[in-house]
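Bug #77: duplicate submission created two jobs. Keeping one. Sequence:
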Amino acid sequence: MSIPSVKKPTLLLVDDDAIIADSLEYMLKEEYSIERAADRLSSFEILKNLDASPELALVDLGLPPDTHKPDEGLAVIRKISQMHPTTRVLVLSGQDNKKHVFRAKEDGAVDFIAKPCDIAEIKARLRRQVEVADDADGDIEGIVGASKAVELLRMQIRQLADSPYPVLIEGESGCGKEVTAKNLHRCSSRKKEPFLTLNCAAFNGELLESQLFGHAKGSFTGATETRKGFFEEAATGTLFLDEIADLPMDLQAKLLRVLEDGEYYRLGETKSRYSIARVLAATNKNLFVQIKKGLFREDLYHRLSVLTIRVPTLDERGSDKLRLLEYFKGEVQEQVATFQLDSDAEELWRSYRFPGNVRELRNIIIRLSSKYPGQTIKVPVLEQEMSSYQGQLDESSSESWLTQTMSDESFQLDKMLKSVERDAINLAMRKHSGNVSKAAEMLGVNRTTLYGRMDRKEE
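Kept job's structure:
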């Protein structure tokens, strides 16, 4: 009985030095099926004609016509990333200064091996990437549901997880942007490295800059010791910047520099440092509006949004509302006996929009379980829990509108108050078909006062 042969992983080897390429092929051919190219164009031709994506690529940066610059090798890496995004690209090059390493990894390389390097090390690094590729799909956690919107979200997470580029995660408050960021990290080859989260709205000025980049002792009041920043602590892992729209303009410029070439400075230091951490960013604001208002840099937006994921609202997820009901009840019942919905309450649950998204849904489940353990919930009780959130949301929306209005350079309090008064009078008069007495009653003023304000409105 013959033993079926195991298909060897394909390795694309791109190096113009024939002696090095011959030696590598000889030493690696037992473990890998080798495809060889000596320059950018021949590598492109091989990539175009392959039946399937190669598992690995080993690329030299210094390729002809100018072997002293990394441009040709970087172009090969970008092409592989575009045509075969699942291919694990390793660089084997003597051009190993920090900027070249950073650019290679930014363009899609997952590892950088400096020449000269012994073959045992090369083999070990290649085997490591084969293991990572076998396990790259990862387990997506905390994203519950079977709707098309959620299936698309899962697909995007798996597709973009191992890209070296930043990802901008957009979506309403409470829809699961941080969970999405964690899954992008969990499904990537960085999953064993740190995952750090920094809320850009939680700190101001020097403190936020210190959190991001670190500081030297004595660099500002209260800096009693030298500390690393999040970029340094993240190392080769992932840094998630939540509420990115709230990052101050001066720090936006510094973040842009890190994203462009990896360079940053600790507060109070003149020595440059380099980061190769992957950056994920999230916002519930429309960044185009922020750009128009001069509150967000357009160049930073384009740098962050190389890849974008939009997390769907709960209202877009249909029957997932019921799946999430059971999922969070399962979490809660470890601490307290949970509740049941009667048929009418279940229908309300299914049709309710959940403006606070998954966060609101989870909080309602926690409150109902705490107040009514083991009981059957009817519509009036459920409506009360839903309306209590709506009241908070209305208050929050009002504050948000006022903040936005006051940020306008032409804002004048008297002008705004007159506008609100005019709109209220118009609304009351329309609602009561021009009946001044009823409109005055609705507005809580007498008829004489209303006449006076209507006259003023016409001025």
